[in-house]
Design brief:
This protein is an all-alpha fold. It has a domain of about 80 residues. Helix content is about 75%, strand content about 0%. It is built from 4 helices and no strands. The longest helix has about 40 residues.
Length: about 150
């Protein structure tokens, strides 16, 4: 066995143990997947679902190819393009969802940590809204002064 093969097996063993640790934490509910595919308001997100499915399909396909051939294949540009389009769709959707005001308190918050997080998010949103309102008032006052000087 060469050093490269031993390194590959050690890396695969490490990644396998890491994956099993994550699966165990999901199974014991230490990692919450409740909001994995949902937007901030609780509705389903097609862009998140698409990115998740594309990523899993490509990852499993590459794993099968590597496992059967014991070498890493050349990845076609079309696959990378599809994955890039899916990721950019998710990023644009995320940007749009955060640019629109959303209710931060979700019905059925199960723990005080969820409620505390929601309250903190609501306070941050209120502070940001107050900052935007003050900036808008300053801009309006400057516009009135500029109009008054020109008249």
């Amino acid at each position: 066995m060469t050093l490269a093969q031993v390194s590959g097996f050690v890396l695969c063993l490490f990644l396998g143990l890491f994956g099993l640790t994550i699966l165990y934490q999901i199974w014991t509910k230490q990692i919450n997947l409740r909001y994995l595919l949902s937007e901030a308001d609780g509705s389903a997100s097609m862009s998140r679902f698409q990115l998740l499915i594309f990523t899993f399909v490509i990852a499993f396909s590459l794993f099968e190819i590597v496992a059967s051939g014991m070498r890493f294949p050349d990845i076609p540009n079309g696959i990378l393009t599809l994955l890039g389009i899916s990721a950019s769709t998710y990023a644009v959707g995320k940007g749009i969802s955060y640019s629109q005001p959303q209710p931060t308190l979700q019905p059925g918050a199960e723990s005080s940590g969820d409620i505390d997080d929601a309250v903190a998010a609501a306070q941050a949103a209120a502070s940001q809204a107050a900052t935007h309102a003050a900036t808008a008032q300053q801009a309006a006052a400057q516009a009135q002064q500029a109009t008054g000087i020109q008249s």
